[in-house]
Amino acid sequence: MAQNPTTGIPEGSPSGTRGDPARALAADSTTTVPARDPLSRVAIRQIALLAIASTVGFVLLMAGLSWATNLTSSSTATLDAIDVETGTVTLSLTQEPPQLDSTRLTDSVSGRILGHVMEGLLRYDVNNQLAPGVAERWDIRADGATFWLREEARWSDGEPVTAHDFVFAWQTALDPATASQYAFIFYVLKNGEAINTGELPRESLGVTAVSDRVLEVEFEQPVAYFDKLVAFQTYYPIREDFYLSREGRYAADADDMLYNGPFEITVWVHGAHVRLEKNPDYWDRDGISLNVIDFPYITADGNAVLNLYRDGQIAEVNGLGAESLDQVLAERWPVGRYSDGSVWFFQLNHRSDHPTGNYNLRKALQLVNDPGELVYKVIKIPSNTPGESIFPTWLKGEKGLFRQEYPAPTVTPNVTLAREHLEQAKRELGVDEIPPLVLLADDTPGASKQAEYYQNSLMQKLGLEIRIDKQIFKQRLAKVEAGEFDVALYGWGPAFDDPLTFADLFASWNPNNHGEYANAELDAQVRIAQQSTDQATRMAAFGRIQEILFEDVAIIPNYERGQMYIQDPRIRGVARRAVGADPDYTRAYIVTD
Amino acid sequence: MSTAAFKFGPGDFEQVATERRTQTLSRPSVSYWQDAWRRLKDNRRALISLWIVIALALFTLAGPLLWRVDPAAQDLDQVSQPPGLPQVAVIVEPYVPWAGIMATPVPGTAETLAAATPEGLRLVEPATTQAVRLAWDPVPGASGYRLYRNIFDPEPDGAVGLPVAEILDPGQVSFEDRLDLEPARYWYSVFARDEFGAEAGDYATVTVDATRVVSAAEAETLGWIGAAAAVALGDEIVLPYHPLGTDYLGRDMLSRLMYGARVSLFIGVVAPLLFVVVGIVYGSAAGFIGGRVDQLLMRFADFVVALPFLLFMILFKIAFGIGPGESGIFPMLVALVLLAWPATARLVRGQVLQIREEGYIGASQLLGAKTTYLVLRHMIPNTMGVILVTLTFAVPTVIFTEAFLSFIGMGVAPPTPSWGSMSNEGLRTMLTHPHELIFPAIFISVTVLAFNLLGDGLRDALDVRMRGRE
Asked: Are B231 and B92 in contact (CB under 8 A)?
């Protein structure tokens, strides 16, 4: 019989030679003692002895381990966040700097690092005023500008910083092959836009090195704020021979960069450690007090950072979360706040294949949005203020503050009206139900909380289903750029201290206009604001842009962000600002009393 | 001789006497399962665990029928409430924005400013959770004011707390606080700012006791009362009760735990059932057929063991086109079933190989038993103990896997709760609101422990060699 299993077994069946799990299982179960016996006195005594012995053993083990840890770590790690002798300050970063190539950089963490190791023609000082950087003096005219570079400015390999380095960097940023997100910031230069679109060669850019120490700039149109522009990181210099010698690896590692700022990167272990040391070739080296700024911790975990601060491992905590505030109060630490200048809003996808391309749907979203509730009850960080406009309240206008001269149109939440718009939107889109909207958000606890708040609030008020797409920062940026979202929780920080940095964000040609919003009138107003030198005309244009963005529901403002921070009281001279590297430790010093 | 010719008659037969019993059973016959159940009942730990498992099933299946609270509903007025008694709120007028109080700035010198203390800091109207409105007298020479709020007394060391406002207009001598107000005591401190924005002079402090209020219209929208007209100003209403408190968005913890258990227990029961079945079929086939087929099948099982679970879970998530914000439970189930069966398969194969050699199998074959009969009558019933034990031990493992995956964000999508995702959310507020982490963590621990102890008890009960040892 072929089916007979016994005939199928070869000689020396494996069953006898293999470990049999079932048998092993049964074997150890025989040792189980039934739990019914009452505990005898002897047993109790034994248990008590064992408990004492194990406790003592555990304590001894822990003491031994802690002793052993100290043995190994005392040589490598500093035990204090501030080392007065070596002039070292230890800090933490929320994430690995994604991009240190100044022509491509877009995020604030990279901006902070680069602001310490590089210097543009001009820079911001401790009081957030423009100060001379590589340029000794400058002259800005209606048709152009001249910068005289200082003789002592040096790269970290000892070579002088020349006007050619600026020409090369600016041309590279505009080169279509670089695909810089910030290329548009050079459009004010002659032929800037044409070079970026590929119509003209990069050499035709209106910037020339008259000599090694004189930089001549030609404008496309008058630029009232050019001195503020050249302090921005995309305007930093890059040396051509070094850039080309790296063959596309420029700024990929600490060795693949040349520094001309007060510090240089000496250690860059990706994802783990960044260490800045004082640049001995920096022209104003005597004005720099710190020797080392160390970032041995890269974590976005608020609790971990707070514990590091409490243990004296780091000297500051930036961006305290709402959940840490009670703890900070209980510790009685002094808390500071400042506006980081950024505005956060719903970036809406205006492409026609997304439901948010429909005006009435956007209007419905606008009518149920309550930034006050978001700021006071969900985010709960005192330094934030409810958002009403793309233009934050701190921007300067013609005489006073812009928002006082041109108040933002406000919306009164109205659920009934919103539902009417929603019905209208359904009719126009030809659907019975709006398909689930994808809400793109960072995977940070704060952003998740906001996303979940909107998910519930929009379901409750409008019956809209929201799918939350949580992504890490880099991936969220990539998805926003690819247009893979309906609504994105999006923030925009200022590049320079002028309303234009926010106003041209939704111009149809701006690569940061990720929702592809297009409005001819807005484009025209942006052109006016760019080309005019008359502040009254420019502010009127900004005022009109603010109205258009509101009327057309191009965006829905959520909040203006501020940061709460705690900082070791022994450190002074740290600049925290809306525009530029933030927080800036370049001119910080340690007080020893 | 023909047999047909011979005829039997009744007289040819005689009745055989009834046989006398040689053996009697003094006790009722006990089957294998009855015996196992009897011994399981004697194991107190296992029995308690069994009751816990039953209670959990009731909690998640019948619980939501009794406790009809939407686990996704957010009660932003009761955020991160610890477990406690129901809260009451007083009905007030709806919130109206406040223009504030303006005063003519008083000129002064830097010296007078440096010595000045803001005077007359007072509450403009009774403090409520809607708003706290403060005003003070202008300080000569101030360029603005800075306000701090603390939940502790700033004295004696001047810990004034959180900077809640930065007033840049020297004419504005009032402030309205709406930030996350709770019915508690607050200490507000005000500093005058000098022209550089630094704090000048001393500060003044006022103590404020805020009471919980709600407007009738709000209460109606939130569903706290039937109709706004039914209550009058000054009435006290009882807020929705959250016996286990609320989470960071004011969602009911009890209800979230009930719904969270659904996900955890669903995947915890279904996934082991499926992969144990796969393991039984695969393992018994390998053990029964034996030889080269067995070798081949078991090497394939070894290969599957080596596959990384997390990677496959991510791959399946992409392969099934699970978009953003959609639940990852289905790919998790598939990944578990496809990758977790080899353990069961090995166990069953070993068992089958052993049974195949037993004498009763040979006897059965000699009596002409077919393969199907052998498998169904002898093999599977005899491996049942091992299989059941595997199953009960697989359940806690899978529950834990689900909790872990949801914890790292690979599992459920918000707003669906799961114990793992709830633990992850609770972790942020571990130090200030520990209940948000402790409850889901306790549920995970108790469930895993109960299933483990039950599995332990089952193993003892189903093991034949344990019989008669008590």
From this structure: no
In terms of Cα–Cα distance, which of B320, B283, B275 is closest to B300?
Answer: B283
Any bridge partners for residue B144, and if so which? Answer: B193
Residues 385-404 of B with CB under 8 A from A: 386, 389
Low-confidence stretches of chain A (pLDDT beneath 70): 1-39, 71-79, 593
In residues, how long is chain B? 470
Chain centroid offset of residue B48 CA: 21
Q: Which tokens sit at A415?
A: 């659920």
- Beta bridge pairs of residue A556: A346
CA gap A108, A300 in Å, rounded = 14
Distances (CA, A) of A529 to A512, A533, A536, B259, B438: 18, 8, 10, 55, 56
What count of residues does chain A have? Answer: 593
pLDDT score recorded for residue A38: 60
User: Where does residue A4 fall: left (phi above 0), alpha (psi -120 to 50 degrees), or beta otherwise?
Assistant: beta
Residue A133, number of CB atoms within 10 A of its CB? 27
Three-class SS string for B189-237? EEEEECCCCCEEEEEEEEEEECECEEEHHHHHHCCCCCCHHHCCCCCEE
The model carries a pTM of: 0.78
For CA atoms A353, A359, A362, A364, give the dihedral sign.
negative
pLDDT category of residue B21 using cuts at 50, 70 and 90: low
In chain B, where the domains are located: 47-71+249-469, 92-215
Look at residues B141, B406, B50, B38 and name the one whose alpha carbon lies nearest to residue B256.
B406
Distance CA A506, CA A347 (A): 10
The average confidence (pLDDT) of chain B is 84
Strand order, beta sheet including B236-238 = B213-215, B88-92, B236-238
Closest approach of B2 to chain A, Cα-based (Å): 41
Alpha-carbon distance A244 to A258, whole Å? 12
Q: What share of chain B is helix, strand, coil (3-state, %, to 5)?
A: 50, 15, 40
d(CA B288, CA A492): 67
**pLDDT of the residue at A504:** 87
SS3 at position B4 = helix
**Which residues 219-248 of B are in CB contact (within 8 Å) with A?**
248
Residue type, A248: G
Lowest mean pLDDT among B18-32, B128-142, B145-159: B18-32
> Does A396 touch chain B if contact means CB atoms closer than 8 Å?
no
Buried b (16+ CB within 10 A) or exposed e, B83-116: eeeebebebbeeeeeeebeeeebeeeeeeebeeb
Residue A453 at interface with chain B, using a CB cutoff of 8 Å: yes
The mean per-residue pLDDT over the stretch B256-261 comes to 89
Are the folds of B47-71+249-469 and B92-215 the same?
no
Query: Cα separation of A95 and A326, whole Å?
Result: 25
Amino acid at A222: P
Q: Which residue has tokens 């059932």?
A: B273
pLDDT digits (tens, 9 = 90+) for B163-215: 998 888 888 899 999 888 888 899 999 998 887 778 888 888 999 998 888 88
Instruction: Say yes or no: A337 contacts chain B, CB-CB below 8 A.
Output: yes
Neighbour order of strands in the sheet with B199-209: B162-167, B144-150, B185-193, B199-209
CB proximity under 8 Å: B 64-103 to A: 72-74, 76-77, 79
Amino acid identity for residue B419 in this structure: W
pLDDT of B5 strictly over 80? no
ipTM for the whole complex? 0.79
Calculate the CA B240 to chain-centre distance.
22
| Highest mean pLDDT of the ranges A293-302, B223-232, B424-433 | A293-302
CATH 1.10.3720.10 is right for the domain spanning B47-71+249-469: yes
Rounded Cα–Cα distance for residues A592 and B9 (Å) = 130
| Top-level class of domain B92-215 | mainly beta
